[in-house]
Amino acid sequence: MSPAVDQRAVESLLAFWADAGVEVSYADAPIDRLAEGVAMLRAKSQPPPPPPPTRPGLAAVRGPDVGAAIAAAKAAAAACQDLDSLAAAIAAFDGCALKTQGAKQAVFSRGVADAPLMIIGEGPGADEDAQGAPFVGRAGKLLDRMLKAAGLEGRVFITNTVFWRPPGNRTPTPQEQAVCAPFVERAIALVKPKMLLLAGGASAKAMLKRDEGILSMRGRWFEWLSEDKATELPAMPTLHPAFLLRTPAQKKKAWQDLLTLTERLDRPERPH
Ligand code: URA
């Protein structure tokens, strides 16, 4: 193409733009608006950026925050000199993620403050969440009937490994249990039971720090050891009463566990 042709082409193009009302040029180089539009569409289809990290020590307890929540739970529990102040400290505690996952209230305990037997379940269900006490639903009624039949009525203190209802009654996670553990341990120190009955696999695993199934652990004696290793207590895992409601054929085993435990509680001098 010759320079003369170029010049005519440029003049013609400028006249075209002038006729269209474009009289001023704002940049030396052309801008590809189509390419810009494509880039904007691509950016919109990218996944959103990750949310900012959660604040340490608050409800969303994950990763290193679990350590901070456990430290806060230990400090709060250690300051409690009786069960009432322990109940109040648990209710005021914000370190367990379960507290903000739909639970209505904290569920701590029921029973006798100086009971010889402490029963530790997994976590509150819907009835416990509504009433604020552990084992008050159908599973709790079965537990009460079994305790009465074994001569243990009025001789137990009942609590759970976590104090807020897990959403949908799911099993509490090891993190949730670890955060609540200092309060459970403080309850043991204040009640001073002679032995522990661990209801269900999630309770037995957390309290005994063992990764065994409940069907192999149930009915056997283990030693529960406090965090500072100063206190040791005999502990027996047993089948959870909610499991017994679903599988009544297994009731015989849980009954056998309860009788073995009662025998040791009432006749500690005998070999076990
Ligand atoms: N199941 C539990 O483990 N604990 C309760 O308090 C109720 C049901």
Automatic annotation (TrEMBL):
- Which processes are annotated in GO (biological process)? DNA repair
Q: Which residues cross the membrane?
A: none
* The species this protein was found in: Caulobacter segnis (strain ATCC 21756 / DSM 7131 / JCM 7823 / NBRC 15250 / LMG 17158 / TK0059)
- Known EC number(s)? 3.2.2.27
Q: Which UniProt keywords apply?
A: 4Fe-4S, DNA damage, DNA repair, Hydrolase, Iron, Iron-sulfur, Metal-binding
Class of the enzyme per the UniProt entry, highest EC level? hydrolase
The reactions it catalyses are: Hydrolyzes single-stranded DNA or mismatched double-stranded DNA and polynucleotides, releasing free uracil
Q: Which GO terms describe its molecular function?
A: 4 iron, 4 sulfur cluster binding; metal ion binding; uracil DNA N-glycosylase activity
Boundaries of each Uracil-DNA glycosylase-like domain copy? 108-259
Q: Which domain of life is it from?
A: Bacteria
Q: Which family does it belong to?
A: Belongs to the uracil-DNA glycosylase (UDG) superfamily. Type 4 (UDGa) family.
Q: Which PANTHER family match?
A: TYPE-4 URACIL-DNA GLYCOSYLASE, TYPE-5 URACIL-DNA GLYCOSYLASE
What's the name of the protein? Answer: Type-4 uracil-DNA glycosylase
